[in-house]
Amino acid sequence: MLFRRSDIFCSSLGSGSLLLLKDSPGAPKVDIHDVVIGILALQGAFVEHQAMLQKLSLKRKLHVVLVRTVEDLNLCDSLIIPGGESTTIALLARISGLLEPLRDFVKAKPVWGTCAGAILLSQSVQNSKKGGQELLGGISIDIARNGWGSQVESFEVGLVVQGLQRPEESFTGIFIRAPVVLDLRSSPDEPPIQVIARLPTNLLPHSLASLDENDPKTVVALRQGLHFLTTFHPELTHDNRFHEYFVRECVLPAAV
Ligand SMILES: NC(=O)CC[C@H](N)C(=O)O
To answer: Coiled coil: which residue ranges (predicted)?
Structure first.
């Protein structure tokens, strides 16, 4: 069954953010001017994204939907695809009948992919598991899974990011079996790719320190049109500036 926006019921979770509870009669309804952000909740760090969104204070009312079905997806104005395991997320999306609806969603609405989510939004992937990897596409880059190595090679580094609130304050980039951007290749008929953050080559762990600062591998956050990608995990920090950025730069410009 499809829910119209006027059918959505919510319960308040404080400071302007609401959690969507379709089955809670008596709770406030979603207004046409409210914003509904979905978080793909098949596997991975979706609860952490939900907590970050709930801490945002916005002028417009924000509702969060944990997306597990096509009906959930149809409620959303935008979507976050969390980190986790991209092969597993794609497999679960196929089993739930969400793979094609997600591909259609990506063509029409803002989507932010973190880590595994970034892999799913890429045009092509290297180092995929045996049997291949299904992608959603949406951002014109090539990416490599586990590009910095295995779990033990995970690292944290301070990122300086223009465009975030308080840009002088560095953001802790948490890289866990993170993918590496291999190539940015938007064609002239596509929106240009805008690099949002690069690894500071002078602060990198020793094994990674040989990168040239303009190497595509240093790109860890980027935008193309209304799509946004981070190869690290902002949702595992206590800092919701990337969540604020996604809402301000991608979600609100596309909303009515
Ligand atoms: N932290 C993560 O999301 C890891 C991504 C994982 N290496 C994958 O291939 O999907």
So the answer is: none
3-state secondary structure the chain: CCCCHHHCEEEECCCCEEEECCCCCCCCECCCCCEEEEEECCCCCHHHHHHHHHCCCCCCCEEEEEECCHHHHHCCCEEEECCCCHHHHHHHHHHCCCHHHHHHHHHHCCEEEECHHHHHHEEEEECCCCCCCCCCCCEEEEEECCCCCCHHHCEEEEECCCCCCCCCCCEEEEECCCCEEEEECCCCCCCCEEEEEECCHHHCCHHHCCCCCCCHHHEEEEEECCEEEECCCHHHCCCCHHHHHHHHHHHHHHCC
- Specify the residue with its C-alpha closest to ligand 1, atom 1: 176
pTM of the model: 0.89
CA–CA distance, 242 with 248 (Å, rounded to integer):
10
Per-residue pLDDT at 116: 98
- What is the 136 CA–ligand 1 centroid distance (Å)? 15
Which positions make up the binding site for L-glutamine?
84-86, 145, 176-177
Which tens digits make up the pLDDT trace of 57-66? Answer: 888 899 999 9
Give me the active site residues, please: 115, 233, 235
Confidence class of residue 132 from pLDDT cuts 50, 70 and 90?
Answer: confident
Please check the confidence at residue 16 and state whether its pLDDT lies above 50: no
At the fourth CATH level, the homologous superfamily of domain 5-254 is Class I glutamine amidotransferase (GATase) domain (3.40.50.880)
Q: How far apart are CA 157 and CA 167, in angstroms?
A: 16
Domain boundaries, the chain: 5-254
Q: Which amino acid is at 120?
A: L
